[in-house]
Amino acid sequence: MSVEDGIDSLRNTSEAVSTADATQAIRALVAAGKSCGLLGELDDLATTNALFALFGLDEPDGGDAADLSDLDVLENIELLRRFALGRKLHHLDLPPEKFVSRVMGYLTPRPSEVVEAFRRRFDLEGARAAVDWFYRFSQNTRYVRADLAARDLTWTAPTRYGELQITINRSKPEKDPRDIRAAGERSAAGGYPRCVLCVENVGYAGRPGFPERSNHRLIPLDLAGERWFLQFSPYVYYPQHCILLSEEHRPMRIDEDTFERILAFLQRFPHMFLGSNADLPIVGGSILSHDHFQGGVWHFPIETASVLEQWRLGEIAAEILHWPLSTLRLRGRDSEELVRLGSSLLRAWRDYEDPERGILAEGLWNGKRERHNTITVIGRRRNEAFELDLVLRNNRCDETHPDGIFHVHADKHHIKKENIGLIEVMGLAILPPRLEAGLDRMVSLLCGELPLASLADDFPHRAWAKDLLARVGRVADRTGAWTILRRDVARIFAEGLEDCGVFKPDEEGLRGWRRFLAAWKARCDGMCCTDAETSHEAALKGGTSATERME
């Protein structure tokens, strides 16, 4: 048997794995861990013995084994998973992803060693070098599953807001906004760890319905007088997708401290961005039960959005962006002034109402009073200046839009139904894996391989298919059809983001902006509005706040 045939037989799940092959796989894993710096002097011996014990091997089997040199780390782990199944090792009867975490936990250094290595690099080489090292480390431990991210479909396409970024995420299941709300309400029930972001997840072996975190490590940071922890997201929506989580398990909350923490983080990591999802169901992220931020080094479409109107608030530049969601950008070097302005805008928006545009500050949900207004916040550095994007959000529902008046409307749920969180606010679509099969049928339809009549009545893209055929007709080949579909997916995504905007990107929406800015200005005692007073004064009328209405 050739080396290639031997490897192919090991990759064939119907073939049994011998103890000699398992021994080889363990040695290959340990060698890989040593070569990438996970294991130091003598660590290889201890780790080898620990893995032997894990797999019930009293001693290495030196018998004939296939040459595993062409197998990568994950293929060796899969071989060991098959070995464990064949030996009926019940403690290793785990789903594939949990099995990877369990085995890699044996190669992952102790948390204190990781923290020491990060801080040493930060002090000697700077923030960028330390973050780059920690990201490579997280990939080497397979906590960050770059292999799963590589399977995602990604593209960019032009829209009226510029090039948007589109991803069909093949590795993470779609979440219903109603389930996210329910999960947030259940968070008080306890459990250990209480959620997937809690610090107690470090080294946690998992349980049914809860992920394995044996290979998980955190970096502690002190921000604005509190202890926070930096990690990378295992789902890798974009390179160096990081999460900054609170030491305390507490619900998401946007307040003055949010701005202070973002700017404090940007002081220490000026090459990164950091943002917070909104803190309410429907307009928030998929985890509302634990206070956290998301960040990274990726550049998003919102960064290059054009400007509809601009003015100055003292030394701070203010801009209304030409963007599908209602976004005000503040930019300046004075971090304290940015915190003050951001906080005052948040307070003004919290109780602002404009009933003609469907904006109410409070309402009833399951018999309880619930606030509706909040913001999504994104911070970054622009040369020496700080930049804050404040995105106005409202989570009201009604009979016409039971999933949210300012949520993606039902006619676009065939593309996107989940919450529009921080990442999508910035112009990166995270679309569900179910979309891939639907798009493939759409390509066949455009190419004439399938007639429209062949589509089932419950085909989710049926209305879209009919509209697209009316607009573009038949297409000569699959390549051309995919080009058209990718552009149209981006168009629908952009229109879904427009649904989420409280002030629409038109003249009427701009009038709504001006009315809100008048309410904000009225509440900002001593706020310098040099250009705003001359450029907006005549138009800034008509908006009211809930406080004023109740008085």
Q: Any overview of this molecule?
A:
This protein is 39% helix and 17% strand. The protein contains 18 helices and 17 strands. It has helices spanning 3-11, 19-35, 43-54, 73-86, 96-105, 111-125, 127-140, 146-149, 177-186, 256-268, 335-350, 422-425, 434-446, 462-472, 478-500, 507-523, 530-536, 546-550; strands at 153-159, 162-168, 219-223, 226-232, 242-246, 273-276, 292-296, 307-313, 316-321, 327-332, 352-353, 362-365, 368-371, 373-382, 385-394, 428-431, 544-545. The strands form 4 sheets. Strands 3-4-5-7-6-14-15-10-9-8 form a 10-stranded antiparallel β-sheet. Strands 1-2-16 form a 3-stranded mixed β-sheet. Strand 3 (219-223) and strand 4 (226-232) form a beta hairpin. Helix 2 packs antiparallel against helix 4 (73-86) and helix 11 crosses helix 16. The N and C termini lie far apart (87 Å).
Number of helices: 18
Strand content: 15-25%
Overall mean pLDDT: 89
Q: How many strands appear in the DSSP assignment?
A: 17
Instruction: Give the strand order, joined by hyphens, for the main sheet.
Output: 3-4-5-7-6-14-15-10-9-8
| Helical proportion, percent range | 25-40%
The coarse silhouette is globular
Alpha-carbon distance between the two ends: 87 Å
Major sheet: size, sense and barrel closure? 10 strands, antiparallel
Structural class call reads alpha+beta
C-alpha-based Rg, rounded: 26 Å
Poorly predicted segments: 1-11, 526-551
